[in-house]
Prior knowledge:
Elements: H1 3-30, H2 35-38, H3 46-49, H4 52-65, H5 90-123, H6 127-147, H7 162-168, H8 172-185, H9 191-204
Helix pairs in contact: 1-4, 1-5, 1-6, 5-6, 6-9
Amino acid sequence: MDFKEVLIFYIPLVVSLAVHEWAHAWSAHKLGDDTAAEQGRLTLNPIVHLDLVGTVLLPLSLLMSGSGPFLGWAKPVPVNPHRFRRGVSIFAGMLLTSIAGPLSNLVLAFLCSLGIVLAKRYTGASEMVIKGLGFALSLNVLLMIFNLLPVPPLDGHRLLPPRVQEALQPYSMLLFIGLLALIWTSGDFFRVPVQAVVAAIQFLTG
C-alpha cells in the first residue's frame, strides 16, 4: 500500500474519531457538564483527541500489514455526571452523552453516501475521491456498530440497566481486551451488519 492509499484510509479514521469525541463533549456540555470544554476537548481538532495506541500505532500498523479489521479509537472525553443540570439523572445524562458518539458516525455515514451520489452525478470526481468517500461511509458504519456493542468501556454499555453497568465495571478492561481478541480472530465479525447498514443508507440517499 503506497503513501497515497494510506492517507485515503487513515485520514477518514482520524476525522471520524474526532467528530465522535466532539459529539460526546458537545452532548455533555448541553446537559450542563463543562468538564470536557474546560479541558479543551469541545473541539473538532483531531490532534486534541489523538490516542497514541488507538489512533496512531494500531491503525497504521493494521494498514501497513493489511491484517485484521481496520479499527481504532480516540482518547475518551471526560464526563462528570454530577455536573449535569438539575432534572437530568445520571443514567439518562450518561446515556445521551454516550449515544451522541455513535449517532455522529451515523450522520457522517449519510453525508459520505450523499457525497458519493453528488460526486458521481454532478462533479465528475476522480475514482480516488469516490473510493475515499466509500471507505469513509463503511468506516463510520463500522465505528457506530462497534461503539454500540454493550461492552464497557464502549458507548453501548450505557444502554444496559445501571445495576448491570455497575457489575461489569470492574471487568471492563478484561471484557474489552476479550472483545478485541474475538474481533481479531474472526475477520468477518462486522462484515454482514456493516454491509446491511451501508446498503440501507445508500438506498435512502438514492
